[in-house]
Protein: Holliday junction resolvase RecU
Organism: Aneurinibacillus thermoaerophilus
Amino acid sequence: MRYPNGKFPALQHSDAELPNRMRAEDFLTLIQDKQTSAAGRGMSLEEDVNESNAYYVAHEIASVHKKPTPVQIVKVDYPSRSSAVIREAYFRQPSTTDYNGVFEGRYLDFEAKETRNKTSLPLNNFHAHQINHMRLVLKQKGIAFAIIRFILHDETYVLDAAHIIRFWEEAACGGRKSIPYSYIQKHGYLIPEGFRPRLDYLSVIKRHYF
Amino acid sequence: MRYPNGKFPALQHSDAELPNRMRAEDFLTLIQDKQTSAAGRGMSLEEDVNESNAYYVAHEIASVHKKPTPVQIVKVDYPSRSSAVIREAYFRQPSTTDYNGVFEGRYLDFEAKETRNKTSLPLNNFHAHQINHMRLVLKQKGIAFAIIRFILHDETYVLDAAHIIRFWEEAACGGRKSIPYSYIQKHGYLIPEGFRPRLDYLSVIKRHYF
Protein backbone atom coordinates (compact mmCIF):
# COMPACT_ATOMS: atom_id res chain seq x y z
CA MET A 1 0.00 0.00 0.00
CA ARG A 2 1.52 3.34 -1.01
CA TYR A 3 0.20 6.79 -0.37
CA PRO A 4 1.92 9.51 -2.36
CA ASN A 5 3.09 12.41 -0.20
CA GLY A 6 2.28 10.40 2.91
CA LYS A 7 -1.34 11.51 3.04
CA PHE A 8 -4.05 9.06 3.85
CA PRO A 9 -6.58 9.41 1.03
CA ALA A 10 -9.69 7.86 2.57
CA LEU A 11 -9.72 10.43 5.37
CA GLN A 12 -9.43 13.55 3.24
CA HIS A 13 -12.41 15.79 3.80
CA SER A 14 -13.30 19.20 2.56
CA ASP A 15 -14.30 21.89 5.01
CA ALA A 16 -17.93 21.46 4.04
CA GLU A 17 -17.91 17.92 5.41
CA LEU A 18 -16.91 19.04 8.90
CA PRO A 19 -20.05 20.66 10.27
CA ASN A 20 -19.51 19.76 13.91
CA ARG A 21 -16.19 21.39 14.63
CA MET A 22 -15.87 22.82 18.08
CA ARG A 23 -15.16 26.53 17.80
CA ALA A 24 -11.79 27.71 19.10
CA GLU A 25 -13.64 29.98 21.54
CA ASP A 26 -15.44 27.03 23.10
CA PHE A 27 -12.18 25.14 23.25
CA LEU A 28 -10.38 28.03 24.97
CA THR A 29 -13.21 28.40 27.48
CA LEU A 30 -12.95 24.70 28.21
CA ILE A 31 -9.21 24.92 28.84
CA GLN A 32 -9.52 28.11 30.88
CA ASP A 33 -12.17 26.45 33.07
CA LYS A 34 -9.88 23.50 33.68
CA GLN A 35 -6.93 25.74 34.56
CA THR A 36 -8.94 27.99 36.89
CA SER A 37 -10.34 24.97 38.62
CA ALA A 38 -6.98 23.28 38.94
CA ALA A 39 -5.51 26.46 40.41
CA GLY A 40 -8.30 26.74 42.98
CA ARG A 41 -8.59 23.19 44.25
CA GLY A 42 -5.65 21.13 43.19
CA MET A 43 -7.81 18.61 41.33
CA SER A 44 -10.55 19.26 38.81
CA LEU A 45 -13.89 17.51 38.98
CA GLU A 46 -13.00 15.59 35.83
CA GLU A 47 -9.85 14.26 37.46
CA ASP A 48 -11.81 13.26 40.56
CA VAL A 49 -14.42 11.45 38.48
CA ASN A 50 -11.80 9.71 36.36
CA GLU A 51 -9.90 8.60 39.42
CA SER A 52 -13.08 7.31 41.06
CA ASN A 53 -13.98 5.40 37.89
CA ALA A 54 -10.52 3.84 37.79
CA TYR A 55 -11.08 2.75 41.40
CA TYR A 56 -14.49 1.26 40.59
CA VAL A 57 -13.07 -0.64 37.60
CA ALA A 58 -10.01 -1.89 39.49
CA HIS A 59 -12.24 -3.19 42.28
CA GLU A 60 -14.85 -4.51 39.83
CA ILE A 61 -17.52 -2.36 41.52
CA ALA A 62 -18.72 -0.95 38.20
CA SER A 63 -17.56 -0.40 34.63
CA VAL A 64 -17.77 3.35 33.96
CA HIS A 65 -15.53 5.19 31.49
CA LYS A 66 -15.12 8.64 30.02
CA LYS A 67 -15.65 8.65 26.27
CA PRO A 68 -12.70 9.89 24.23
CA THR A 69 -12.89 13.47 22.92
CA PRO A 70 -14.42 13.24 19.44
CA VAL A 71 -11.96 14.31 16.79
CA GLN A 72 -12.41 14.57 13.03
CA ILE A 73 -9.19 13.30 11.47
CA VAL A 74 -8.24 14.88 8.14
CA LYS A 75 -4.61 13.97 7.54
CA VAL A 76 -2.38 11.19 8.88
CA ASP A 77 1.36 10.83 8.22
CA TYR A 78 3.30 7.62 8.72
CA PRO A 79 6.94 8.59 9.05
CA SER A 80 7.81 4.94 9.78
CA ARG A 81 6.16 1.58 10.35
CA SER A 82 6.28 2.20 14.07
CA SER A 83 4.21 5.37 14.22
CA ALA A 84 1.20 7.06 12.67
CA VAL A 85 1.00 10.79 13.34
CA ILE A 86 -2.21 12.75 12.95
CA ARG A 87 -1.21 16.04 11.31
CA GLU A 88 -4.59 17.68 10.83
CA ALA A 89 -7.70 17.10 12.90
CA TYR A 90 -10.53 19.10 14.45
CA PHE A 91 -12.48 18.94 17.68
CA ARG A 92 -16.08 17.89 17.18
CA GLN A 93 -19.09 18.60 19.32
CA PRO A 94 -19.91 15.42 21.31
CA SER A 95 -23.34 13.96 20.52
CA THR A 96 -23.76 12.27 23.88
CA THR A 97 -22.70 12.83 27.47
CA ASP A 98 -19.10 12.23 28.54
CA TYR A 99 -19.48 9.23 30.82
CA ASN A 100 -21.38 5.99 30.72
CA GLY A 101 -21.22 2.42 31.94
CA VAL A 102 -22.88 -0.32 33.92
CA PHE A 103 -23.34 -0.71 37.68
CA GLU A 104 -25.06 -3.81 39.10
CA GLY A 105 -27.19 -4.30 36.02
CA ARG A 106 -28.15 -0.64 35.60
CA TYR A 107 -27.03 1.64 32.78
CA LEU A 108 -25.42 4.89 33.98
CA ASP A 109 -25.00 7.99 31.83
CA PHE A 110 -23.77 11.39 33.03
CA GLU A 111 -21.96 14.65 32.54
CA ALA A 112 -19.57 16.21 35.06
CA LYS A 113 -19.79 20.00 35.40
CA GLU A 114 -18.17 22.41 37.80
CA THR A 115 -18.73 26.10 38.29
CA ARG A 116 -17.23 28.97 40.27
CA ASN A 117 -20.68 30.53 40.30
CA LYS A 118 -22.01 30.52 43.90
CA THR A 119 -25.70 30.78 43.20
CA SER A 120 -26.45 28.66 40.14
CA LEU A 121 -25.22 26.36 37.38
CA PRO A 122 -25.62 28.08 34.00
CA LEU A 123 -27.50 25.93 31.48
CA ASN A 124 -24.94 26.75 28.79
CA ASN A 125 -22.91 23.99 30.41
CA PHE A 126 -25.09 21.67 28.32
CA HIS A 127 -25.79 21.34 24.61
CA ALA A 128 -29.14 20.60 22.96
CA HIS A 129 -28.03 17.19 21.70
CA GLN A 130 -26.86 16.23 25.20
CA ILE A 131 -30.30 17.11 26.55
CA ASN A 132 -31.92 14.99 23.82
CA HIS A 133 -29.53 12.19 24.64
CA MET A 134 -30.43 12.30 28.35
CA ARG A 135 -34.12 12.28 27.43
CA LEU A 136 -33.68 9.07 25.42
CA VAL A 137 -31.60 7.44 28.17
CA LEU A 138 -34.39 8.12 30.68
CA LYS A 139 -36.95 6.74 28.22
CA GLN A 140 -34.83 3.59 27.88
CA LYS A 141 -34.80 3.26 31.71
CA GLY A 142 -31.17 4.16 32.14
CA ILE A 143 -29.99 6.32 35.06
CA ALA A 144 -29.10 9.74 33.63
CA PHE A 145 -27.72 12.55 35.77
CA ALA A 146 -25.11 15.25 36.12
CA ILE A 147 -22.36 15.44 38.70
CA ILE A 148 -22.27 19.13 39.59
CA ARG A 149 -19.55 20.77 41.64
CA PHE A 150 -19.87 24.21 43.20
CA ILE A 151 -16.19 24.97 43.58
CA LEU A 152 -16.58 27.85 46.04
CA HIS A 153 -18.98 25.87 48.25
CA ASP A 154 -16.70 22.84 47.94
CA GLU A 155 -19.77 20.67 47.35
CA THR A 156 -20.49 18.13 44.65
CA TYR A 157 -23.99 16.85 43.85
CA VAL A 158 -25.72 14.22 41.76
CA LEU A 159 -28.70 15.81 40.03
CA ASP A 160 -31.09 13.61 38.05
CA ALA A 161 -31.35 14.47 34.36
CA ALA A 162 -35.11 14.96 34.65
CA HIS A 163 -34.46 18.21 36.55
CA ILE A 164 -31.94 19.41 33.96
CA ILE A 165 -34.32 18.63 31.10
CA ARG A 166 -37.14 20.52 32.87
CA PHE A 167 -34.99 23.65 33.37
CA TRP A 168 -33.79 23.37 29.76
CA GLU A 169 -37.36 23.24 28.45
CA GLU A 170 -38.45 26.17 30.64
CA ALA A 171 -35.46 28.21 29.44
CA ALA A 172 -36.55 27.54 25.85
CA CYS A 173 -39.90 29.14 26.76
CA GLY A 174 -38.33 32.23 28.31
CA GLY A 175 -37.52 30.82 31.76
CA ARG A 176 -34.25 31.31 33.64
CA LYS A 177 -31.00 30.18 32.00
CA SER A 178 -29.53 28.47 35.03
CA ILE A 179 -30.33 25.98 37.78
CA PRO A 180 -30.26 27.65 41.22
CA TYR A 181 -27.82 26.35 43.83
CA SER A 182 -30.71 26.20 46.30
CA TYR A 183 -32.67 23.98 43.91
CA ILE A 184 -29.73 21.60 43.54
CA GLN A 185 -29.25 21.54 47.32
CA LYS A 186 -32.87 20.52 47.68
CA HIS A 187 -33.32 18.09 44.76
CA GLY A 188 -29.76 16.82 44.27
CA TYR A 189 -27.82 14.35 46.39
CA LEU A 190 -24.60 15.53 48.03
CA ILE A 191 -21.68 13.23 47.22
CA PRO A 192 -19.40 12.39 50.14
CA GLU A 193 -15.73 13.13 49.42
CA GLY A 194 -13.13 10.79 50.77
CA PHE A 195 -9.85 9.16 50.04
CA ARG A 196 -10.75 6.04 48.03
CA PRO A 197 -12.54 6.64 45.84
CA ARG A 198 -12.14 10.38 46.07
CA LEU A 199 -15.70 11.05 44.92
CA ASP A 200 -17.92 8.12 45.76
CA TYR A 201 -20.86 9.02 43.55
CA LEU A 202 -21.93 5.38 43.21
CA SER A 203 -22.77 5.22 46.91
CA VAL A 204 -25.26 8.03 46.24
CA ILE A 205 -26.62 6.32 43.11
CA LYS A 206 -27.05 3.08 45.00
CA ARG A 207 -28.89 4.73 47.88
CA HIS A 208 -31.30 6.72 45.73
CA TYR A 209 -31.87 4.60 42.61
CA PHE A 210 -31.76 0.99 43.77
CA MET B 1 -4.74 34.26 26.98
CA ARG B 2 -1.61 34.14 24.80
CA TYR B 3 0.41 31.12 23.79
CA PRO B 4 3.76 31.93 22.20
CA ASN B 5 4.27 30.21 18.83
CA GLY B 6 0.65 29.10 18.84
CA LYS B 7 1.30 25.91 20.77
CA PHE B 8 -1.03 24.77 23.47
CA PRO B 9 1.16 24.35 26.57
CA ALA B 10 -1.07 22.23 28.81
CA LEU B 11 -1.21 19.43 26.27
CA GLN B 12 2.52 19.15 25.56
CA HIS B 13 3.73 15.64 26.28
CA SER B 14 7.03 13.91 25.82
CA ASP B 15 7.21 10.59 24.01
CA ALA B 16 7.61 8.79 27.30
CA GLU B 17 4.15 9.89 28.38
CA LEU B 18 2.42 8.25 25.43
CA PRO B 19 2.62 4.53 26.16
CA ASN B 20 -0.60 3.50 24.44
CA ARG B 21 0.01 4.64 20.90
CA MET B 22 -1.42 2.39 18.26
CA ARG B 23 1.39 1.15 16.03
CA ALA B 24 1.32 2.27 12.40
CA GLU B 25 1.18 -1.40 11.37
CA ASP B 26 -2.03 -1.96 13.32
CA PHE B 27 -3.45 1.21 11.87
CA LEU B 28 -2.61 0.16 8.29
CA THR B 29 -4.13 -3.29 8.87
CA LEU B 30 -7.27 -1.59 10.14
CA ILE B 31 -7.52 0.59 7.06
CA GLN B 32 -6.72 -2.26 4.68
CA ASP B 33 -9.44 -4.38 6.29
CA LYS B 34 -11.95 -1.60 5.81
CA GLN B 35 -10.97 -1.10 2.17
CA THR B 36 -11.05 -4.81 1.35
CA SER B 37 -14.40 -5.13 2.98
CA ALA B 38 -15.82 -2.08 1.26
CA ALA B 39 -14.62 -3.37 -2.12
CA GLY B 40 -16.29 -6.74 -1.55
CA ARG B 41 -19.67 -5.72 -0.18
CA GLY B 42 -20.32 -2.08 -0.71
CA MET B 43 -20.82 -1.40 3.00
CA SER B 44 -18.58 -2.38 5.88
CA LEU B 45 -19.95 -3.94 9.04
CA GLU B 46 -19.07 -0.78 10.94
CA GLU B 47 -21.15 1.31 8.55
CA ASP B 48 -24.07 -1.12 8.89
CA VAL B 49 -23.88 -1.02 12.68
CA ASN B 50 -23.59 2.77 12.77
CA GLU B 51 -26.56 3.15 10.44
CA SER B 52 -28.62 0.73 12.51
CA ASN B 53 -27.71 2.63 15.70
CA ALA B 54 -28.75 5.91 14.08
CA TYR B 55 -32.08 4.26 13.21
CA TYR B 56 -32.55 3.02 16.78
CA VAL B 57 -31.78 6.46 18.22
CA ALA B 58 -34.00 8.29 15.72
CA HIS B 59 -36.90 5.98 16.57
CA GLU B 60 -36.10 6.03 20.30
CA ILE B 61 -35.78 2.23 20.28
CA ALA B 62 -32.43 2.33 22.08
CA SER B 63 -29.51 4.63 22.77
CA VAL B 64 -26.39 2.95 21.37
CA HIS B 65 -23.35 4.85 20.09
CA LYS B 66 -19.87 4.13 18.81
CA LYS B 67 -17.21 5.62 21.04
CA PRO B 68 -14.90 8.10 19.37
CA THR B 69 -11.45 6.82 18.36
CA PRO B 70 -9.14 7.60 21.27
CA VAL B 71 -6.51 10.11 20.29
CA GLN B 72 -3.63 11.53 22.32
CA ILE B 73 -3.42 15.22 21.45
CA VAL B 74 0.05 16.75 21.61
CA LYS B 75 -0.17 20.05 19.75
CA VAL B 76 -3.07 22.37 18.92
CA ASP B 77 -2.86 25.51 16.77
CA TYR B 78 -5.48 28.25 16.71
CA PRO B 79 -5.05 30.14 13.46
CA SER B 80 -8.12 32.23 14.33
CA ARG B 81 -10.85 32.50 16.93
CA SER B 82 -13.10 30.41 14.72
CA SER B 83 -10.99 27.28 14.53
CA ALA B 84 -8.69 25.08 16.58
CA VAL B 85 -6.55 22.71 14.52
CA ILE B 86 -4.89 19.66 16.01
CA ARG B 87 -1.42 19.51 14.45
CA GLU B 88 0.10 16.56 16.26
CA ALA B 89 -1.78 13.64 17.75
CA TYR B 90 -1.48 9.86 18.02
CA PHE B 91 -3.90 6.95 17.91
CA ARG B 92 -4.26 5.19 21.24
CA GLN B 93 -5.28 1.65 21.97
CA PRO B 94 -8.93 1.67 23.15
CA SER B 95 -9.38 0.40 26.71
CA THR B 96 -12.97 -0.73 26.18
CA THR B 97 -15.11 -2.06 23.36
CA ASP B 98 -16.28 0.25 20.57
CA TYR B 99 -20.03 0.35 21.20
CA ASN B 100 -22.24 0.68 24.24
CA GLY B 101 -25.60 1.98 25.29
CA VAL B 102 -28.96 1.19 26.85
CA PHE B 103 -31.91 -0.80 25.49
CA GLU B 104 -35.09 -1.17 27.56
CA GLY B 105 -33.25 -0.89 30.85
CA ARG B 106 -30.38 -3.20 29.90
CA TYR B 107 -26.77 -2.13 29.39
CA LEU B 108 -25.33 -3.24 26.01
CA ASP B 109 -21.63 -3.42 25.23
CA PHE B 110 -20.08 -4.86 22.08
CA GLU B 111 -17.41 -4.99 19.40
CA ALA B 112 -18.10 -5.35 15.67
CA LYS B 113 -15.65 -7.57 13.76
CA GLU B 114 -15.66 -8.84 10.22
CA THR B 115 -13.40 -11.34 8.52
CA ARG B 116 -12.79 -12.72 5.04
CA ASN B 117 -11.70 -15.96 6.68
CA LYS B 118 -14.26 -18.67 5.83
CA THR B 119 -13.57 -21.07 8.66
CA SER B 120 -12.91 -18.98 11.79
CA LEU B 121 -12.58 -15.59 13.45
CA PRO B 122 -8.96 -15.05 14.56
CA LEU B 123 -8.70 -14.04 18.21
CA ASN B 124 -6.21 -11.30 17.34
CA ASN B 125 -9.32 -9.29 16.47
CA PHE B 126 -9.48 -8.61 20.22
CA HIS B 127 -7.07 -7.08 22.72
CA ALA B 128 -6.43 -8.26 26.27
CA HIS B 129 -7.96 -5.12 27.84
CA GLN B 130 -11.11 -5.57 25.73
CA ILE B 131 -11.45 -9.12 27.06
CA ASN B 132 -11.01 -7.82 30.62
CA HIS B 133 -13.56 -5.13 29.93
CA MET B 134 -16.13 -7.68 28.67
CA ARG B 135 -15.47 -9.82 31.75
CA LEU B 136 -16.31 -6.90 34.04
CA VAL B 137 -19.42 -5.98 32.01
CA LEU B 138 -20.72 -9.55 32.39
CA LYS B 139 -19.94 -9.43 36.12
CA GLN B 140 -21.94 -6.18 36.37
CA LYS B 141 -24.88 -7.90 34.61
CA GLY B 142 -24.53 -6.01 31.36
CA ILE B 143 -25.08 -7.72 27.99
CA ALA B 144 -21.66 -8.09 26.36
CA PHE B 145 -21.18 -9.60 22.94
CA ALA B 146 -19.52 -9.30 19.55
CA ILE B 147 -21.22 -8.74 16.22
CA ILE B 148 -19.24 -10.98 13.87
CA ARG B 149 -19.55 -10.90 10.11
CA PHE B 150 -18.21 -13.64 7.83
CA ILE B 151 -17.95 -11.61 4.64
CA LEU B 152 -17.66 -14.57 2.24
CA HIS B 153 -20.63 -16.36 3.82
CA ASP B 154 -22.55 -13.08 3.90
CA GLU B 155 -23.67 -13.85 7.45
CA THR B 156 -23.54 -11.74 10.60
CA TYR B 157 -23.89 -13.17 14.10
CA VAL B 158 -24.26 -12.02 17.69
CA LEU B 159 -21.90 -14.07 19.88
CA ASP B 160 -22.06 -13.65 23.64
CA ALA B 161 -18.83 -12.41 25.25
CA ALA B 162 -18.71 -15.47 27.52
CA HIS B 163 -17.74 -17.58 24.47
CA ILE B 164 -15.07 -15.13 23.39
CA ILE B 165 -13.60 -15.00 26.89
CA ARG B 166 -13.51 -18.80 27.06
CA PHE B 167 -11.66 -19.11 23.72
CA TRP B 168 -9.28 -16.35 24.81
CA GLU B 169 -8.46 -18.14 28.05
CA GLU B 170 -7.96 -21.46 26.28
CA ALA B 171 -5.66 -19.79 23.73
CA ALA B 172 -3.58 -18.43 26.63
CA CYS B 173 -3.09 -22.05 27.75
CA GLY B 174 -2.00 -23.30 24.35
CA GLY B 175 -5.43 -23.72 22.75
CA ARG B 176 -6.43 -22.59 19.24
CA LYS B 177 -6.06 -18.90 18.32
CA SER B 178 -9.43 -18.51 16.62
CA ILE B 179 -13.14 -19.20 17.06
CA PRO B 180 -14.39 -21.70 14.44
CA TYR B 181 -17.16 -20.63 12.08
CA SER B 182 -19.01 -23.83 12.95
CA TYR B 183 -18.89 -22.90 16.65
CA ILE B 184 -20.31 -19.44 15.95
CA GLN B 185 -23.04 -20.98 13.75
CA LYS B 186 -24.01 -23.20 16.67
CA HIS B 187 -23.64 -20.83 19.64
CA GLY B 188 -24.19 -17.45 18.00
CA TYR B 189 -27.43 -15.87 16.80
CA LEU B 190 -27.76 -15.03 13.11
CA ILE B 191 -28.82 -11.40 12.59
CA PRO B 192 -31.48 -10.82 9.93
CA GLU B 193 -30.44 -8.24 7.33
CA GLY B 194 -33.03 -5.90 5.98
CA PHE B 195 -33.65 -2.39 4.84
CA ARG B 196 -34.47 -0.48 8.03
CA PRO B 197 -32.48 -0.95 10.10
CA ARG B 198 -30.00 -2.66 7.84
CA LEU B 199 -28.72 -4.93 10.60
CA ASP B 200 -31.40 -5.44 13.22
CA TYR B 201 -29.19 -6.86 15.94
CA LEU B 202 -31.52 -5.62 18.70
CA SER B 203 -34.26 -8.00 17.53
CA VAL B 204 -31.79 -10.82 18.22
CA ILE B 205 -30.79 -9.35 21.60
CA LYS B 206 -34.42 -8.99 22.58
CA ARG B 207 -35.29 -12.57 21.64
CA HIS B 208 -32.34 -14.18 23.41
CA TYR B 209 -31.63 -11.95 26.42
CA PHE B 210 -35.01 -10.65 27.56
